[in-house]
Model the fold of this input.
Amino acid sequence: MTSMRSWKWNLWHTITVSVLPCLYYRYRASAGFVILPINRYFWILYIRDMNCLIIDDEPLAIDVIVAHCKRIPELNVVETCNNAMEAFQALHKHEIQLIFLDINMPVISGLSFLKSLKEPPAVILTTAYTEYAIEGYELDVVDYLLKPIPFERFAMAIQKVQQRLSRPQNISGINIPAVATPAIHPGTYNSNTSTKDFIFIKSNGKLVKLNFSDIRYIEGMKDYLKIFTSDKTHVIHQTMKAMEEQLPEHLFMRVHKSYIVALDAIQQIDGNCIETASGGVPLSNTYRDVLLKTIEK
Done:
């Protein structure tokens, strides 16, 4: 038994220490081949080299983003800035593909800085506040990261940047009042007996119709939601529980504490990552068994 374990360990050690690094360095230059260990599984991202600019007035926040970037070799942090004036100078000196932008900064806020740029690169907002989400997405940012930023969420934002660079998206911001609803058990929904195949959301004082068939997945950010559809991303002020009440259980399923996915939108499940046409969605162990049983029926 000991020799069998030793043989298996040696094989695994050879693959992870020798073979995978060789594959990585062989294909990195041409394909941006990166293997990231997340949630006990290997999650593969295909990303291009990007020069990054970090703009934040908090040194600790800058250190966190720099550390995350170092874990993805294709992200090259060319400069860090503590305010908008330094950032303007950095943009003149470097060719930047991605900006990590804090919102609450002295003199010129992050959003005011972004509005002043004629042709901004891809932007990921980094902040401790949720109330700027709608305005941020109206400015066509790629993602909105809430501090403290875990690496798993950071990696997903980078994947969205790659998708944006390869397939432009039409982003629109919307607003809707939050609605209180009963608690939902993991992997289940309250019964929805309505035969309608759509919901209405409030956008700029107007009611906008969303067909269930157009919704790919929904991401929760405290009191805000991002609804990813086939052609747009909507940001609304509503809770996940409230949204769950409106979605039919045979079409949608909770797969993570912060994500609901349309079952028809699932293209593949790779470890703890669900792939859809609009991007990757994390799959937590809490909901994994229920999801697999549902799609295998």
Summary: Confidence is low (pLDDT under 50) at residues 21-45, 168-193. The longest strand covers residues 75-81. The chain has two domains: 46-168, 198-295. The first helix runs from residue 2 to 31.
